[in-house]
């Protein structure tokens, strides 16, 4: 990609000279045109979203009006100067932005009182922040649990609130985005009660229809600034497919070298050559593993180099995260294996290369990660190392699906009753809910409020709804959709807390016998206590990793839409999914070879969610030459491949969704394939699948048919998370089945018109919680 020629602009006259001086002190003589445009809209009182490329100066676009207002010196009615609130999806990004603001505002003296307020903030500092800070940086979780429920203590800050900055807003999608949308509505409601009406400034490097997405997130009209005027160095992007090994996996399928092993080799080679690099990997375990492999190989070359590579992921203790961030910022670390915690706008300028171990799930994330290299305007390298699965294989052989397509639309559904209900309770505890408030929270309120009253959570008194319980309403929900109390990982010999694991992932990641990696060290889980939320581990060095297996059943609760596909049907509605982790596999580290399987005894978990499903008839099976012996394998293979390809059509990750295929489902009385959202109430992914079903399933059929294997492999129909050990599977039957199904598919616009709500709007909610 050739460098773009930037266009300078002059700051609006109303921006104070002190801000211009600070900008120049930071080495920026003039702003780019998009920065000036965004500042103009903000100073005019319009909410604005800046959707320009990575390292295009979005921070300056929102800091200019913020600093200008904070430095203005005018007192608000309560005698306190103007205030601003910054929201980041991660603590690390908020801390990084705080450091940048302090550096930028240093020439201005102490007029900007900047502070980070999150779960790591010492209690002795919190009161000072509430009373005196005028630029507070936090995250949606702390806003939800800490600031809004304690709004009387924040009253002077909220009365003076002029700007709310929502950084990296493309990350607010699915269930998390839906929760954040309601948290922002609660914030707007409280500000209005205190007499404030803040302007929202949003920023994202990767967003489709940014104004629409930002409007859905905030509930406000938002002006879009998307013309990127910043200069950019050349980016060389490589697609890397690991070679086949001599090993064979499940059912004798050929096995490629793992993306983890390839990425570790690349990170090692780049570090030896002095190239500053980050290897992005999808899982916490993968980040640790790449770090360990790279350190071992670097030690063989030069022991000092091994200390310059580390892992970075969620679940570390606060002091560990801060130390790694300092080492990365200073250049002490040369290579880093990281989860998407570093995908966001943390200043890691000076990187020369990015290695991406496996497609990160969306084009938005792919470009966000690739954009971390070359942030100072120099040329850079990005390498996507394909995993052995249908989507990654499809992408390396169809690069146009990456480079010729726009990033995905942001999918979120604030009206999801599983999301909305707890926020109505939280809002009622903050201030009693009146009829005038209901428009702010959306049309689903009318149906939900009687249900919440029947559940004795809310009570109607005169003209308002009141919270009835003693416990905090904000504790009803985890806005990241993780659900439940985090599992503490404790070392048995010392009692030392190593970190935490999300409750939703505990059954599959810290079950008894699981291999757990932390800071380059390997542990074995000796026991998992679900009641006390503790996993006890001890240090060990097993030559394998572990992968959980599960079983899943599904029942249809309500069919919202049913569209004929020839004799078959494409449906969308509400389902109940019952899942149970039943065993785990031990896989050799470098090759993925299966060494054995161990049974587990864990309780089942139930999920009410949204799904898309399709059925086929006996006539269609006859035309596809599918007999009863291969029917189950054909359906199963089509299910796996369709889940693998869905991230191309919905803003989701393979692990955000699940699937079930049944030769004779008791609710449909036909062979049926289900694909469902892996979050209570749904996250919008199944609805997007329904709307794009023809294109999605056509790509699925092509991915299976074009794979070079004989009977199915991880590159086409085998799934890394299959609870049945990828048995049965029938590759050719899946291709014939999808061919016949697609012959009866209506034009896509016909399908898109069917779901309630229309394109880009939330679907009709399922029955209340």
From TrEMBL:
Residues 742-769 are annotated as: Disordered. The keyword Cell cycle does not apply. Keywords: ATP-binding, Helicase, Hydrolase, Nucleotide-binding. Residues 39-225 form the Helicase ATP-binding domain. Residues 266-418 form the Helicase C-terminal domain. GO terms for biological process: interstrand cross-link repair; nucleotide-excision repair. InterPro entries: DEAD/DEAH_box_helicase_dom, Helicase_ATP-bd, Helicase_C-like, Helicase_put_actinobac, HRQ1_WHD, MZB, P-loop_NTPase. Pfam families: DEAD (PF00270), Helicase_C (PF00271), MZB (PF09369), WHD_HRQ1 (PF22982). GO terms for molecular function: 3'-5' DNA helicase activity; ATP binding; nucleic acid binding. PROSITE patterns: HELICASE_ATP_BIND_1, HELICASE_CTER. It comes from the Bacteria. This is ATP-dependent RNA helicase. It comes from Streptomyces azureus.
């Amino acid at each position: 990609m050739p460098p773009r020629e930037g266009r300078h602009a002059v700051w609006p006259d109303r921006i104070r000279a002190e801000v211009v001086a600070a900008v120049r002190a930071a080495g920026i003589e003039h702003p780019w045109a998009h920065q000036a445009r965004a500042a103009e809209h903000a100073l005019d009182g319009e909410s604005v979203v800046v959707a320009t490329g990575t390292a295009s100066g979005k921070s300056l676009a929102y800091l200019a009006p913020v600093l200008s207002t904070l430095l203005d010196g005018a007192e608000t009615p309560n005698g306190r100067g103007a205030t601003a609130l910054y929201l980041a999806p991660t603590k690390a990004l908020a801390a990084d932005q705080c450091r940048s603001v302090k550096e930028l505002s240093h020439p201005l003296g102490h007029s900007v009182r900047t502070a980070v307020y999150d779960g790591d903030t010492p209690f002795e500092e919190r009161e000072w922040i509430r009373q005196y800070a005028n630029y507070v940086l936090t995250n949606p979780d702390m806003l939800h649990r800490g600031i809004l429920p304690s709004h009387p203590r924040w009253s002077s800050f909220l009365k003076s609130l002029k700007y709310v900055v929502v950084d990296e807003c493309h990350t607010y999608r699915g269930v998390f985005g839906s929760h954040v949308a309601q948290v922002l509505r609660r914030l707007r409601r409280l500000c209005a009660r205190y007499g404030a009406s803040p302007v929202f400034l949003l920023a994202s490097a990767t967003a489709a229809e940014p104004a629409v997405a930002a409007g859905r997130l905030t509930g406000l009209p938002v002006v879009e600034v998307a013309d990127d005027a910043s200069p950019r160095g050349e980016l060389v992007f490589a697609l890397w497919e690991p070679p086949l090994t001599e090993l064979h996996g499940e059912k004798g399928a050929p096995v490629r070298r793992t993306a983890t092993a390839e990425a570790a080799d690349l990170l090692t080679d780049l570090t030896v050559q002095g190239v500053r690099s980050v290897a992005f990997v999808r899982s916490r375990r993968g980040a640790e593993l790449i770090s360990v492999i790279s350190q071992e190989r670097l030690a063989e070359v030069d022991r000092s180099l091994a200390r310059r590579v580390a892992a970075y992921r969620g679940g570390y203790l606060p002091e560990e995260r801060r130390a790694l961030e300092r080492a990365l910022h200073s250049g002490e670390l040369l290579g880093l294996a990281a989860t998407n915690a570093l995908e966001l706008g943390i200043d890691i300028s000076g990187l020369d290369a990015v290695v991406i171990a496996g497609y990160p799930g969306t084009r938005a994330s792919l470009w966000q990660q690739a954009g971390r290299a070359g942030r100072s305007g120099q040329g850079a390298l990005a390498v996507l190392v394909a995993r052995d699965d249908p989507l990654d294989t499809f992408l390396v052989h169809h690069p146009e699906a990456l480079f010729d397509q726009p990033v995905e639309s942001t999918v979120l559904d604030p009206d999801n009753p599983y999301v909305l209900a707890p926020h109505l309770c939280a809002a009622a505890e903050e201030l009693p809910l009146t009829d005038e408030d209901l428009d702010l929270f959306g049309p689903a309120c009318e149906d939900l409020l009687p249900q919440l009253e029947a559940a004795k959570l809310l009570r109607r008194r005169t003209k308002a709804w009141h919270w009835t319980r003693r416990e905090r309403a904000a504790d009803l929900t985890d806005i990241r959709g993780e659900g439940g109390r985090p599992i503490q990982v404790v070392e048995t010999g010392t009692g030392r807390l190593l970190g935490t694991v999300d409750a939703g992932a505990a059954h599959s990641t810290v079950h008894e016998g699981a291999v757990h990696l932390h800071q380059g060290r390997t542990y074995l889980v000796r026991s998992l206590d679900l009641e006390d939320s503790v996993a006890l581990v001890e240090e060990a060095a097993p030559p394998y990793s572990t992968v959980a297996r599960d079983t899943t059943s599904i029942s249809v609760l309500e069919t919202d839409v049913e569209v004929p596909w020839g004799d078959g049907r494409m449906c969308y509605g509400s389902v109940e999914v019952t899942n149970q982790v039943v065993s785990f596999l031990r896989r050799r580290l470098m090759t993925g070879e299966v060494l054995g399987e161990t049974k587990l005894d864990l309780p089942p978990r139930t999920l009410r969610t949204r799904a898309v499903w399709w059925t086929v008839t006996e006539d269609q099976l006859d035309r596809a030459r599918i007999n009863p012996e291969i029917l189950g394998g054909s359906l199963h293979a089509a299910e796996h491949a369709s889940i693998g390809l869905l991230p191309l059509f919905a803003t989701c990750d393979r692990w955000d969704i699940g699937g079930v295929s049944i030769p004779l489902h008791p609710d449909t009385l036909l062979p049926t394939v289900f694909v469902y959202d892996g979050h209570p109430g749904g996250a919008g992914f199944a609805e997007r699948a329904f709307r794009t079903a023809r294109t999605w399933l056509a790509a699925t059929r092509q991915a299976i048919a074009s794979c070079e294997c004989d009977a199915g492999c991880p590159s086409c129909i085998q799934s890394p998370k299959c609870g049945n050990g990828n048995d049965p599977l029938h590759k050719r039957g899946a291709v014939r089945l999808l061919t016949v199904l697609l012959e009866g598919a209506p034009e896509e616009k016909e399908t898109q018109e069917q779901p309630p709500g229309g394109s880009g709007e939330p679907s009709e909610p399922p029955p209340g919680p």
